[in-house]
Amino acid sequence: MPKVIYVSHTGESREVEAPVGMTVMNAALKNGIDGIIAECGGVCMCSTCHVFVDEKFFAKLPPARDTEEAVLEIAAEERRPTSRLSCQIKMTEDLDGLIVRLPKKQR
Amino acid sequence: MTRAGTIIVGTGQAGFQTAASLRAEGYLDPITLIGEEPHIPYQRPPLSKGFLLGTQDADSIELRPAAFYNDHKITLLSGERVSGISSGMRQIEIESGGQLSYDSLVLATGASNRKLPVEGEELEGVLYLRSLAEAILIKKHLEAARNIAVIGGGFIGLELASVASQLGKNVTVVEALPRLMSRVVAPVISKFFREFHAGRGVRILCSQAAARITSAGGKARGVRLASGEEIAADLILIGIGIAPNTELAAKAGLSVSNGISANEFLKTIDPNIYAIGDCVEYPSEFAGGRVRLESVQNAADQAQCVAAAIAGRPAPYRALPWFWTDQFDIKLQMAGISAGHDRIVMRGSVEDRRFSVFYFQGSKLIAIDSINRPADHMFGRKLIAMGVSVTPEVAADERADLRRLAIAAEIPERPRSVN
Predict the structure, then answer these.
(1) DSSP B328
(2) Any idea what DSSP says for residue B404?
(3) Residues B89, B100: contact at Cβ < 8 Å?
């Protein structure tokens, strides 16, 4: 099963298994990763599942849609070039080992 | 002396978020989260959407897995009813027996479905939606049903209609008022959704009151309208609004109006008792007065505000309200509260299914509703939250960049978050 590595803003990392098709947001919630709030439940209405995707994986992701792009603009911690909403990243075999860094604040 | 800690009554989004935010705020005292529903806290919005469609199950809508509560030292008492509050003693009574003491009490008691006040409402085949248990029941009935009548053309009614239609059912929506979602959106949006539903085969009847539920063999058979027409239906879904659960607060002597009355800190008249979420009426700068809102945003942001207060960092609640509804593949995004507007202007094209409605009160922009224009919604949230008014002319001008206006208006010292 593919794995995701979440790195907290203080640098602690945790590796969890995420089945293909599950979002990176849901995998965080299921595994008790603090730092992902997911207020709207994954429908692209809030920015509380914001992550910074590791550069080598960022290019592998399908591009963000308009809705996600707009939400990233209101993120509590300012967006960076590799910002994504974790609710919009679905796991694939190809993403095994995905590293995402969590912002200091989500709201 | 041992601290009694915080008791939160209600395990919905507001109650859950209070507990989670208290721990995130570094609160170390005991936290008890207690509610009548048998499930661990879950998200309500998917119940009328993905859950009934089958794209999400009960497991996937849990707000956090069961282990979260232990891991964060949150005592979760599900399936328990709080029967009373002794505010002088700072204790609650639990119906199944016993008292619990608190330093702070948070009432997140939510709301209950308004019952359709007509004959036959209690028949088998007439269902309401608020809880997971009710959603499970509707899902079961939907399997065999062919003809569905939905009473109520608000968000819940229309989301149910859209789901039932996508499941291949014949759907009729009965709305008593002349247009859909009339309490919250402009006529242009009501008309858009009416036509959109009609295009997908949903029959929409406005200005039609349900007079009674007809029956055959003890089961619902249809809806008789005041006009005399009968809509045949083997399943009748009712979504005519909710009423706040204020009974516990009223019994405890707290002030109650259209909800449990609270001040701008979401505190009731008792300094140790807060009220948040669907059940509270509070003063909102965005409503221009006291308001009671029913939304995830309201629940989560109020929970965060009260958690910070209990953790020693009180601040008035001033988050901008926002809402959404999903019907078929259309998402309507709403920023601010449009009630009280006296002028609207539009941007984009209804024909292209890509437009926003800007609501003004005098010269002040108070709300924006958007369809397929997510940037209007997000930057609109910023502008309204910061009290930056664009003129109606600018709002209507496609070339005027809302992003630039929002960024220009931002004061550097101020946190970027508008949530």
Answers:
(1) T
(2) H
(3) no
pLDDT digits (tens, 9 = 90+) for B204-228: 999 999 999 999 999 999 999 999 9
Tokens of B184: 């919250």
Structure tokens at B310: 């209990």
**Beta strand B330-336 pairing with B343-349:** unpaired
Amino acid at residue number B374: P
**Which of B43, B378, B410, B414 to probe the A interface (max A CBs under 10 A)?**
B378
Residue A80, chain B, CB below 8 Å: the answer is no
What's phi and psi for B406, nearest 5 deg? -65, -45
A19 touches chain B (CB under 8 A): no
Beta bridge partners of B273: B105
The answer to whether the Cβ–Cβ distance between B375 and A39 falls below 8 Å is: no
What does the H/E/C string look like for chain A?
CCEEEEECCCCCEEEEECCCCCEHHHHHHHCCCCCCCCCCCCCCCCCCCEEEECHHHHCCCCCCCHHHHHHHCCCCCCCCCCEEEHHHCECCHHHCCEEEECCCCCC
Is residue A107 within 8 A of residue A45, CB to CB? The reply is no
| Paired tokens of B276 | 């948040």
Nearest to residue B287, comparing CAs of B317, B249, B253, B254?
B317
Structural contact between residues B402 and B375, judged by C-beta atoms closer than 8 angstroms: yes
* Residue A73 near chain B (CB below 8 Å): yes
Mean pLDDT, rounded, of chain B: 96
DSSP string, B192-203: HHHHHHHHTT-E
Partner-chain contact A73 B403, CB within 8 Å: yes
The interface predicted TM-score of the complex, written ipTM, equals 0.93
Inter-residue contact B334 to B184 (CB < 8 Å): yes
Any B CB within 8 A of A83 CB: no
> d(Cα B336, Cα B321) in Å, to the nearest integer?
5
Q: Sheet of B99-101: strands edge to edge?
A: B82-86, B91-94, B99-101
Q: What is the mean pLDDT of residues A71-88?
A: 96
Chain B nearest-CA residue for A105: B417
B182 by DSSP, 3-state: which?
coil
Q: Which two tokens stand for residue B289?
A: 């007065």
Using the beta-carbon criterion (under 8 Å), do B382 and A67 form an inter-chain contact?
A: no
pLDDT band of residue B10 (cuts 50, 70, 90) is very high
Q: What's the pTM?
A: 0.95
Q: Compute the nearest-CA separation of A106 from chain B (Å).
A: 9
As a whole number of angstroms, the distance between CA B388 and CA B185 comes to: 22
